[in-house]
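Project channel, design review

CF: Before we commit to the Escallonia herrerae constructs, I'd like one complete example in the thread so the newer folks can see what an input/output pair looks like. Taking Protein LURP-one-related 6.
RD: sounds good, go ahead.
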Amino acid sequence: MAGNANMMPIISKMFCSSSQVVLVVRRRPHMVSGGGFVVTDCSQRVVFRVDGCGVLGKKEELILSEGDGEPLLLIRRKEGLVEALSINRQWKGYSFNYEGSRKLVFSLKEPKACFAKKHPIRISVDQKEYSNSEDFEIKGHFPDRKCSIVNSRGDIIAQVGVMKEVEQLMASKDLYYVAVTPGIDQAFVFGVIAILDYIFDGSTRC
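CF: and here is what came back for Protein LURP-one-related 6:
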C-alpha cells in the first residue's frame, strides 16, 4: 500500500494514525440488533459502529458513531428532481461538532445501474484546511470484499479484504478487514464503507 506521511484529518485528527491500522468489520443481524455493523481493532475493542434504517427508522440515512456511541457522521442520500435526472445518486456526509450542529465534509457519487460499469464511485472532500478539494475513487468490487479507496494520484488510502482463513470457513462476507494507510482519517474511511455497504449489501437497510 502507498504510504502517506502527512496527516489528513477529515473528521478529526484523533482518527489519524502514524502507522497502518487494520480494523475488522463484523455485520450485525437485522433480527437481533437492527442490522448495521461494528468495527473492532486487534484488541477486539469497538472503534466504530454504523446504524441504519433498522435502528434509526429512516431509509437512506446512516449514522457512524464512535465505539461508545458518540455520533460522528450523519450520512444521507440526496433526493429531488435534479437527482432523479442525473446519472448519479449523491450521498452527503455531515460531521457533528460539540454544539450538535452539522457540517458537510464529503460527498459520494454513486452511478445508477446502467452507468455503473463506465463510471466508478467517486468521493470528494472540500475542506478549508486543504488548498483544493480532494478526490477519491473506488477501485475493485466491494461485494467481493476486494476493493480499495484511492486518491487522485492513484495511491491506495484504504484497502478492503477477507483473510484467507476466514474465507475458507465462511461463505458469507459478513466478516472482513479494512487496512487504512498512515495519516488517513479512519472515520472518513468507514463513512465511505458505510455507504458501500448500503449500496451493495443492505445491512443497514430496512
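RD: helpful, thanks. The first strand starts at residue 21 and ends at 27.
CF: The chain has a mean pLDDT of 83.
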